[in-house]
Structure formats: structure tokens, C-alpha cells
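User: Can you help me understand a structure? I only have the sequence.
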Amino acid sequence: MSERFVPKRPVICAHKEMPAAVTEAEAMSAYLKEKGVDAPYGLIYDESLRKRVRGGEFDVLVIAGGDGSVLRAGHLCAPSGVPILGVNLGRLGFLIQVDRKEWREYFDKLFNGEAWIENRMMLHAEHIRAGESLGEWRALNEAVVGRGANLRPVRLTASVDGSLLTSYLADGLIASTPTGSTAYALAAGGPILPPKLRNILLMPIAPHLSVDRAVVLAEGSTVSVTPKSENAVLSVDGQAPINLMKDDRIDVRAADINAQFVRFGDPGYFYHNLTIHMNENSLGMPR
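Assistant: Let's start by predicting it. Here is the structure, written out as C-alpha cells:
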């Protein structure tokens, strides 16, 4: 566990498409103001607010929403080293420790010095064609090379640190962080990695007569994924897909920055959240 964390310059955000989140963000700001803490609130995609975050004006960002909202907050905050505190407005999210009904209690704990910072690995993905870089992205969950809207599987090769690992005929290949192991990779049948790890997980999607097992790479390794057919696309953290050409290369490695999250209590919270999710699924309850 890292040193205790007490913020002095919070900001509260919500997604404009979640009216309940906007209402809750306003209530959070008002609650902190009553406690003598100035905490402006706004929308996560408001460019003026984003500039203030990137400029280092705040030392914690509270995001009201679900895992998707936390993911967006991670992309914004990680480059500036701003920790994120998620408040869940629906089901308990894998990335979120604080429930909608509990935020007042946890806000009190936060400003009483009862919080700590968890660092989570991010990915750096680069699109290369004929030796030229066409784009670079950071991902908190995963980079996926897949078939896109085309129903035919794609042929892919994967190399690790310059050496061929294997070839795939599949709907796609996921290169995931430990955080992403509970997202798309989990839905594809992959293992769950604890968030402290800094390993890349490779998980094929619906492989056809090819390797169907997940591979966990050694810490510090780079994986290069090369489509060998024309119908492949790249998607990073679920963003709009980018069309790839045959023999393009996608290099994925650990990013040089981390996403930081505000946590409370025992670092074993991850396993507690995990147990809740698995129990809900085994009972057939809505998630």
C-alpha cells in the first residue's frame, strides 16, 4: 500500500449522457462545499475542464458513472498523474470501489487521510506501415486487432520481442492489461490477472483451428501483431476501429505512465469485488 493520500484540489465530473450522474456530481460538489472544500463539477468531455485537468489544476478527479466513464477519465488523467475516484451509479464496477449510496462516507474518509493510491499499468499501442508510424495510443484495458464488421475470421501473426510466437485464424486477438483482463478478455474466456501485475495478456477471440489458449507475457515484453489478411481493424479501449492493411504491424508494450486510482481499506478489495461479480453471475442476477 502506498502513502496515505489527502487531496486539496478536487474536481467532480460526469458524462452528459447520464443525467443521474450529472445530478449526483452537483450534489457531491455541494456536499464538499459545506465541508469547506471547493470542488467544481462539470462534464468529462468539456474541453475547458479537460484543459484544467491537463494543466495540473486539480489533484484528484471524482467521476460519477460506471466503468466506461472511469475508462474515459483514465485516458484524461493518466498523462497528468491525476488520481481518479470512481463513484458507481449502477452495478458494482470492476474499476469502482465506491457505491452511489456510500460516497458521503467515503468522501469523509478521503479528506481524513484514509485513502491510498493504486497504480495500474497502461498499454502503449503503435500502428506501423512500411516502417512508418501512423498513430499511437494509450489503453487502460486493451488493444484489439480483429475482423471488424466482416464475418470472415482474420489471419494474424504475433511476435514477442521480435521472435514469432504463433499464428492465428480467429475473430481477433486481444492484448490486454491486468485491468483489461476483467473486460473483453474475460468475455473471451481469458484468465483474471490481479491489478498489481505489469504483464500483457494475449487472448484470441473465437480461434478457428488455431491456438485457443491465453498467453501471459513476461514483464517488459513487446508484442507485435500483424494481419495477414485485408479485413482487419484495430480498436483501442473500445474506440472507433481503424482499418488495417495486410502486413501492417501493431506494436503493444507497457506504457511509460500509469493510471492512478484512489482506494480505501485493504488492498485485497479487488478480490472482494471479483467474488461479488462471480456470485452474481452464478445466480443469474442482472449485472
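Now, to help you interpret it: The CA atoms of residues 91 and 155 lie 37 Å apart. The chain has six helices and 18 strands. Let me know which part you'd like to focus on.
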